[in-house]
Every structure is written in structure tokens, then in C-alpha cells.
């Protein structure tokens, strides 16, 4: 729980420093706050990417991400094609970084760029949903929770017994 909160708290310095740009002298921004903004943006993007891949999607540690040869792991992948996972991992990393770029002060009046980056963020979140659902599906299907067989009617009980009906 604390590590999840840490993911969201790493965005606070990025947002704060982005807003601070308009309230400090240009030289002070260039030499003091801009490097801090870059560092905080880098930390936020990488930690959020790491969290998506390892926690939300459970593609586990990075050593397993690019080794799709584990049969138990590969058999649980719903989308089945390796390139889909490479695509979503790579695009997630790139799109995580573009969110920070959208906060750049020089884009304040560049509406087309901001619109494009926002649309790409929507795409990233759309992808995230599918892989998050896959992860939860894998957890449910692997769980040991089973319905007792007595609660499930067998096929004979579902059929209508014709001997009980008269025509």
C-alpha cells in the first residue's frame, strides 16, 4: 500500500515545479528548478512504468519480461502474441514520459501538441486496462476457490423429464 502511494506522490514534485515555472525568474528556473523538474519527472515516469509492468500487469521482474519461454507463465497470457507484450511495455514507457512533457512550460499555448499528448495518454490508459484485466483474470483462474460440485446442477437435472408430461 505504501509503495502504491509512493507512485502517486512522485507526481507531486513534477506538478509543483511545473507550476513554479511561472512564478520564478527565468535564470533561477534554468539553473535551479529546471534540473529538479527533470529529475523528478524522470523518477516519476520510471517508477510509474515499473509499477505498471510489475504490479498492475504482473509481468514480474524485468528479467522475466523479455524471456517468454517459461511455459507456465506463457500459457497464462491471454493475448498470446509476444509482440503485443513488447509493444505495450515499450509504448507504456514512452507514453509515461510524454505525460511529463505535456507539463512543460513552453507548451502552454501549443494546443495541438497538448491535444496529441492527451490523446496518447488516453491510449496508454486504454492499453493499461486490458493488461490489468488480464492480470486479474489470471489471478482468479489460478485461485483455489472452487464451487462445490453439489451446487452445480448436472446435465440430467437441466433437461425436462418427458415422462412427467402428458399430451
From TrEMBL:
Please report the record's description of how this protein sits within the membrane. Answer: Multi-pass membrane protein
The question of whether Membrane is a record keyword is answered with yes
Q: Which InterPro entries match?
A: EXS_C
Task: Kindly report the protein's main subcellular placement as a broad class.
Answer: membrane
UniProt keyword Flavoprotein present: no
Domain EXS stretches: 1-164
Which domain of life does the protein's organism represent?
Eukaryota
Q: Where does the protein end up?
A: Membrane
Give the residues annotated as coiled coil: none
Q: Which GO terms describe its cellular component?
A: cytoplasm; membrane
List the keywords (alphabetical).
Answer: Membrane, Transmembrane, Transmembrane helix
What protein does this entry describe? EXS domain-containing protein
Source organism of this protein record:
Gossypium lobatum
Q: What is the lineage of its organism?
A: Eukaryota, Viridiplantae, Streptophyta, Embryophyta, Tracheophyta
Amino acid at each position: 500500500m505504501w509503495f502504491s502511494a509512493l507512485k502517486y506522490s512522485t507526481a507531486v514534485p513534477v506538478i509543483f515545479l511545473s507550476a513554479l515555472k511561472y512564478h520564478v525568474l527565468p535564470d533561477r528556473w534554468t539553473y535551479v528548478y529546471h534540473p529538479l523538474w527533470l529529475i523528478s519527472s524522470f523518477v516519476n515516469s520510471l517508477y510509474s512504468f515499473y509499477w505498471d509492468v510489475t504490479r498492475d500487469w504482473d509481468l514480474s521482474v524485468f528479467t522475466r519480461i523479455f524471456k517468454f519461454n517459461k511455459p507456465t507463465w506463457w500459457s497464462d497470457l491471454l493475448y498470446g502474441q509476444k509482440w503485443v507484450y513488447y509493444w505495450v511495455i515499450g509504448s507504456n514507457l514512452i507514453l509515461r514520459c510524454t505525460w511529463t512533457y505535456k507539463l512543460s512550460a513552453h507548451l502552454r499555448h501549443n494546443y495541438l501538441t497538448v491535444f496529441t499528448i492527451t490523446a496518447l495518454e488516453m491510449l496508454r490508459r486504454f492499453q493499461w486496462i486490458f493488461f490489468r484485466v488480464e492480470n486479474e483474470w489470471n489471478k482468479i483462474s489460478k485461485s483455489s476457490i472452487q464451487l462445490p460440485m453439489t451446487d452445480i446442477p448436472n446435465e440430467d437435472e437441466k433437461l425436462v423429464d418427458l415422462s412427467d408430461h402428458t399430451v
